[in-house]
From TrEMBL, chain B:
Pfam families according to UniProt: AsnC_trans_reg2 (PF17805), NirdL-like_HTH (PF22451)
Domain called Siroheme decarboxylase AsnC-like ligand binding: residue spans: 80-168
Pathway where this protein functions: Porphyrin-containing compound metabolism
Upper classification of the organism: Bacteria, Pseudomonadati, Pseudomonadota, Gammaproteobacteria, Oceanospirillales
Protein name, UniProt field: siroheme decarboxylase
Domain of life (superkingdom): Bacteria
Catalytic activity field: siroheme + 2 H(+) = 12,18-didecarboxysiroheme + 2 CO2
Amino acid sequence: MNVAHRPKPAKLDAADRRIVNRLQQGLPLVPSPYAAVAAELSLSEGELLYRLERLLEAGVLSRFGPMYHAERLGGGLTLAALEVPEADFERVTETVNAFPEVAHNYRREHRLNMWFVLATETPQRIAEVIEAIEAATGLVVFNMPKQEEFHVRLHLPV
Amino acid sequence: MSVSTCPSEPVPVAGFLDGLDPLDRDIVLATQAGLPLVPDPWSAVGKPLGLAGNEVRARMQRMIDSGVIRRIAAVPNHYRLGYVANGMTVWDVDDAHVERLGREVAGIPGVSHCYRRPRHLPEWPYNLFVMLHGRSQDEVEQQAEVLRERLGDACRDHRILYSSRILKKTGLRLARSSGRPR
């Protein structure tokens, strides 16, 4: 079974914090972008790169790079929920997670207790995967595709 | 890939990328695992593609301008940063006002994502989804209280759904278009 548990908070020093805060905002598209950011943070380019690599290795950052807009790349994306009977929760988790199109799956405390993101190669494929999940689980999938995006920007200051 | 929903994490997206210029597509595929951590990352990306660093940088800038790339940035693991309380707050907001109010509350501190989504009556009356991040549930509840005040009478009901378990979280995965059936 694919169950990830919550990682523990990391210990960061002042320079790490400056890096995490600054690089959540974005890298400038200039010829030597790391040198430019390092100068802003009063670090050397080498130290910034070294620390950035360490923050990635330690899982403080899960990724560093371009953040793509799924729909504009041609993919399909939706948020969906299930009301899973408690007795069946582990079985349904395995069934749902087995679909490669299920990107994230979270348990949440509500009557609708399983919430997952579907990411598919084409928008049309979403409906097919939802049907397949309903067939495999015997449950109704509540499909909640975004109708309007007001804001997408995670910034967690440390 | 960074198109999250409930969580604030990157979501893998398998897109055929057919709408993209072939060289842009190569750049997207070459950077899906991340941008190289070297002094000149643009040249490092371009070298295997036969592109000069300046060309890579110009193309990435154009993709940012057109919205294909949101930005080039660090994606934090919120638990590792101490943001252990992540609340998906859901609001039943009057359809006549949801667009204006969605834009308004999007700027409130702690909000990472704010979307309008369909109701499923009678089980699910909520049409505005706002992800909140805090170091404790108390902090998330304070943020939610700020939202509730801003939404005012247009909001009939709301809930905070905390994630109690991560059941699955996969990494980035972009499909290549060549040789794949449509």
